[in-house]
Each structure stands twice: as C-alpha cells, then as structure tokens.
Design a protein that fits this description.
- The chain is mainly beta.
- 0% of the residues lie in helices and 36% in strands.
- The chain has no helices and six strands.
- The two termini are 21 Å apart.
Length: 94
C-alpha cells in the first residue's frame, strides 16, 4: 500500500476500515443490505499529538473504535475515517 498524501493534525488519526463480514460463523452469506459497519481498522496516518500528550497509536496498528466514531473521507478514490485518538477503544495485539 502506498502512503496516503495527507497528514492529520494534533491528536487525529486516519483509519482504513476493515472489510465487512461476508458470511456468518455458521456459513450463511450476509446480504449487502444487512451488513454492519465494521468497528475495526488499520491506522494509516497519525498526527503529532497535543502538547504534553503524545499519541499512543502508530501507523500499522489494528484498532477498535466506536460504531459512529470519526468522519468518513475519500482520498484518491479510497474511503477512510478520520477521528481523534480518544475515539479509539483499543489496539489489537497478536
């Protein structure tokens, strides 16, 4: 993936949402109209943080965020979310 050409300000991060689930655990396919908005994604860009509050997430982290968190933006034909670091609930570890 090529680096995106945008730099978020202060404590904001840009996240590429994970793809919505295509089928259930039981093997049933989910129609497009019933798919839920994903609540996890990968951090693709981070701001510089606030004075005395450095950011704790970094580019490449897989994170969980609120269902209605962030603002949807389109950069070079691809959809992303831009949100404050405080809207991120957790960083997933391996």
């Amino acid at each position: 993936m090529a680096a995106i050409k945008i730099k978020p300000l202060a404590d904001r991060v840009i996240i590429e949402s994970a793809a919505a689930e295509e089928k259930t655990a039981g093997g049933l396919y989910i129609p497009d109209s019933a798919k839920e908005k994903p609540q996890k994604g990968k951090v693709v860009a981070v701001g510089t943080g606030k004075k005395d509050e450095p950011l704790t997430v970094k580019v490449g982290d897989l994170v969980l965020y609120g269902k209605y968190a962030g603002t949807e933006i389109t950069i070079e034909g691809k959809d992303y979310l831009i949100m404050k670091e405080a809207d991120i609930f957790a960083v997933l570890t391996k």
